[in-house]
Amino acid sequence: MIDLYWPVMQESKSSFKSFFIEVGELTYFSGRFFKEVFTKPFEFKELLRQCYSIGNRSVLLVGVTGFIIGLVLTLQTRPTLQEFGAESWMPSMVGISIIREIGPVIIALTFAGRIASGIGAELGSMKVTEQIDAMEVSGTNPFKFLVVTRILAATLMLPILVIFGDAIALFGSYLIENSKGSVSFVLYFNKVFSTLEFSDLIPAVIKTYFFGFAIGLVGCYKGYTCEKGTVGVGQAANSAVVYASMLLFILDFIAVFVTDIFIEL
Amino acid sequence: MNQTENIPDIFKKVESRNLMLEIVELRKSFGNNHVLNGFNLELYEGENLVIMGKSGSGKSVMIKCLVGLMEVDSGSIKVMGRDITKLSRVELDEIRTEIGFLFQGNALYDSMTVRENLEFPLRRHKKKFGDITDTTALVMEALESVGLAHTINLMPSELSGGMKKRIALARALILKPKIILYDEPTSGLDPITSKEIIELMRRVQKQYKTSSLIITHDVDCARVVSERMILLVDGTNYAEGTFAELASSEEEQVKAFFK
Question: Nearest C-alpha of chain B: how many angstroms from A259?
Fold first, then answer.
C-alpha cells in the first residue's frame, strides 16, 4: 500500500518544498524592494512613465469591466428585491456591494490579468535577452529602474482605477434602474451615497493599495527571476497572473477580517 | 604553440604597454560544475586579445565576471589596477564607465528608440563629460562612428541584424571606454555583415584607441582582429600565442579550432 502512494507522497513533498522556497524568495524580493525604494537615486521620470503606461493600458478594460459588473448585478438582483417589494433598496445594496467588495476584487483581478502578465513577460524577455545585464553594466541599478518603479506604479494606480471602475459600475446600475423603474440620476446617486459611510469606502480603498502592491510585486518577481529562455518568459507571464490572483484573495480575506475587528471595536 | 607559462619574445613589445586588465587564478563553479578553473589573462593598452574556446568552456562566464555581473569564487580581476571583486557598487559603477560591453544578442532596449538606447548609459555618467545637459552631440558622434546616424529615431525592431550590432557597438562606445569587451561579435550574422562588423571593430579601435577583449568562435574574425589569442579549454588557459602560431600548431585540441 505504501509502495503505491510513495511516489505521490514524494511529489507532494517536493511541491511543498518548492512552494516554500518560492514564498521565501518572494519575501526576500519584497525586502529588497523596501530597501531600494528609500535609497537614492530615485527614478521619478521612469515612475511617472510607468504610472501613465499602467494606468492608460488598464483604463478601458477597467471601465468596461465596471460597467458590466453594474449591469449584471442590478439585473440579477432586481427580480429578488421585486418579490419583496424592496426595489427602492436597490441603489443602496448595489452601492455597498460594489464599493466594499465586488468592485475592488473584480477590478483588481482584471488588473492582475493585464498588468502582472504584462510586467512578467516584459521583464522576463528583458532578462533572457540580456537587457537587464546591459543596464547593470551601464551603471544603472536595474532593480531600481525596472522593479521599484513598476511596483510603485501598480500600487499607486490601482486605487485610482478601482474608484473609476466603481463609478462606472454604479452608472451601469443606474442605467438599468432608470430603464426598468424610471429612477432619476440624482435620486439614484442620492440613495447610493446616503447609505455609504466612510467605514465602507476607506477600508476598500486601503486594501486596493495592497492589491496593487501584490500585483506589481508578483509580476516583477516572476519576470526578473525568469530563466529557461523564451519558454521561461511564457511561464513567467502565466504564473504571474496565477500567483497574483491567488494572493489577491488571501489579501482580501485578511483585509475583511481586519476591517471586521476594527468595526467591532 | 606557446604554453602560458613560457611567454614568447614576440609579446615583449606588447608588455611594455600599460596593463589594462589582469585576471589571476579565476575560479567559478555552479554546484559541481567547475566552469573556470584558475583562468589567467592580461590585456595591455591598445591590444586586441581574442579568447577562443568550445561552447561551455567558460568564456561567457569569464566575461560576465569581468564586469561584475557574476561573483567569482576566488581569484582577482584587476581593471586598470583596481580589483573589481573588492569594490563597492558605486566604485564598480565608476570602473564600468571605462568598459564597453557588446553583448552576443546586442541587448538593445526594445522599448526605447536608438537615441534613448545610446543616452541610457549617460544618465548616470554625465560627469565624465563635464555634466553636460544636451547629449545629442555625444549620441551623434557614436552613431556616426558606426555609420548609422540616420537611425537615431528608429526603434530596434526596425533595424536589421547587422544594424543592431552596430548600434549596440555605438552604445558600448558612448562613454568613450578604454576597454571594449566583445561577446561573439559576429554570431548570427551572414559572412558579408560579419566582415563589415570586423572592419568596424578595427576602425573603432583606431579611432577610440581602446583595448579589446574579443570572445569568438569565428576563425576569420580572430585572424583579422587578433594580436594575441588564448585558447580556453575546461575553464583554464590551454594555449596562448599569435594567430599564426596557434593555427600552425600540431596539437589536436588546438588544430580542432582551426579546421
Answer: 42
In total, the C-beta contacts within 8 angstroms joining chain A to chain B are 48
Q: Which of A42, A132, A136, A137 to mutate to test the interface with B (most CBs of B within 10 A)?
A: A137
Residue intervals of chain B classified under CATH 3.40.50.300 are 3-98+177-258
pLDDT at B8: 54
A134 close to B (CB below 8 A): yes
pTM: 0.85
**b (16+ CB within 10 A) / e for A120-146:** bbbbbbbbbbbbbbbbbbbbbbbbbbb
pLDDT, mean of residues B206-234: 87
The domain B3-98+177-258 having CATH identifier 3.40.50.300: the answer here is yes
Q: What is the ipTM of this complex?
A: 0.84
* Overall average pLDDT of the A9-20 stretch: 80
Q: Please tell me if residue A129 touches chain B, with a CB cutoff of 8 Å.
A: yes
User: Is the Cβ of B69 closer than 8 Å to some Cβ of chain A?
Assistant: yes
Of residues B105, B107, B121, nearest to A139 (C-beta): B121
